[in-house]
Amino acid sequence: MKSFTKYLEFNTTKKIDFVLITDKIQKCIFDSGVKEGIVLVNPMHITVAVIVNDNESGLIEDYKRVLERLVPYKDNYAHNVGEDNAAAHIWRQLMGHQVTMAITNGCLDLGPWEQIFYCEFEGIRKKRVLVKIIGE
Amino acid sequence: MKSFTKYLEFNTTKKIDFVLITDKIQKCIFDSGVKEGIVLVNPMHITVAVIVNDNESGLIEDYKRVLERLVPYKDNYAHNVGEDNAAAHIWRQLMGHQVTMAITNGCLDLGPWEQIFYCEFEGIRKKRVLVKIIGE
Amino acid sequence: MKSFTKYLEFNTTKKIDFVLITDKIQKCIFDSGVKEGIVLVNPMHITVAVIVNDNESGLIEDYKRVLERLVPYKDNYAHNVGEDNAAAHIWRQLMGHQVTMAITNGCLDLGPWEQIFYCEFEGIRKKRVLVKIIGE
Fold it and tell me: Terminus-to-terminus CA distance in chain C, angstroms?
């Protein structure tokens, strides 16, 4: 069994931002040499989600509007004593915090529109995403 | 290490539908010959979720009603230019898009009521689910 | 490849409760002897979520309030014939039902604030969480 670990760094220019990372994950798979296995993509910060969905700007606007309507960013939260990020913690749970994807023939095994996104809900600072690959 | 890859096909007769797939996943595990490991069940289409929950028809009605109340299917979405599936994309994030399950002694290692469902939010067309098994 | 399986038992004293389990998962990793791999933490009961987020009591109060506002525990659910746990089933989907974490150098590979929680939405009875480790 082979394993491979990589820490990707992000520092978005916007507080709430969606960054396409499919190519970065594919690059990790190439570097790992794994042909058959899985890749776990796990944000190491708890106001970030990693998701798989469509690369379409309108949809990204829709996510933001729905999340803001369901869990307003500025509201009365018990967590917000000296911080203002309670909603960001909750958004990342609603969106699904991490993904595991299959590696087949040395590549991400994706459907026609599957794209991997780093979803930042409290940005403008440096954060890491852990990429862990196991396989052979 | 062994690995096994299978693409399951679905084409629901309803636009929104919940299909029990536990037996299909168990069949993949038998076919893989893996006795100890994990199975990733990942829909390759981005308006589908794969979840684990109860096989009870009332609960499935409750999911639909709650999702429709939180994120109405027909509403004003930026994504819906030439399509009408923005809510389907968002529902799949709220429900949790994929699952990874354990394989123990050659079987799905399930609790008493755990069942795996294919949750279609934009059906009546052919879609695929990727089953990736690794183990030994 | 090594594999390791452990069933952790929980019986919360409150119907809705959040239990920090990071140390229990780390103990499983030590016991497994796996140095590089992944650990799947999957509740075997379908009104429970296992999540990764902040160990902060205010945030846990915020989760409860947001979940109750979005999907009230006592409401009119089709599932609630002889039971009252429909909302608990739905909460566990919204929060994300399971996590997979990386193992690096024999330890959980965690960011600075990542903590693993058992989130009970229908407690005061015995339930199990499956910990499955694969690696080498």
Answer: 5
In this complex, how many residue pairs, one in chain A and one in chain B, have their CB atoms less than 8 Å apart? 95
What are A48's strand-pairing partners? A120
| Partners of residue B38 on adjacent β-strands | B102, B134
Q: What is the CA radius of gyration of chain C?
A: 16
B84, closest residue in chain A (CA to CA): A59
What would the pLDDT profile of C27-73 be if each residue is shown by its tens digit? 999 999 999 999 999 999 999 999 999 999 999 999 999 999 999 99
Structural domain of A116? 2-135
Determine the Cα–Cα distance for residues A40 and A27; give it in Å rounded to an integer: 14
Number of structural domains chain C divides into: 1
Across the interface, whether the CB atoms of C96 and A100 are under 8 A apart is answered no
pTM: 0.98
Kindly indicate whether the ipTM for this predicted assembly is greater than 0.90, answering yes or no: yes
Q: Which residues of A touch B5 (CB under 8 A)?
A: 36, 102, 104, 109
Question: Measured between CA atoms, how close is C49 to chain A, in angstroms?
Answer: 11
Q: Which of A1, A81, A93 sits opposite C51 (nearest CB)?
A: A93
Sort out which chain A residues have CB atoms less than 8 A from C1's CB and list them.
Answer: 1
- The residues facing B86 across adjacent strands are none
Task: List the CATH number of the domain containing B88.
Answer: 2.60.120.460
Are the CB atoms for A88 and A61 separated by under 8 Å? no
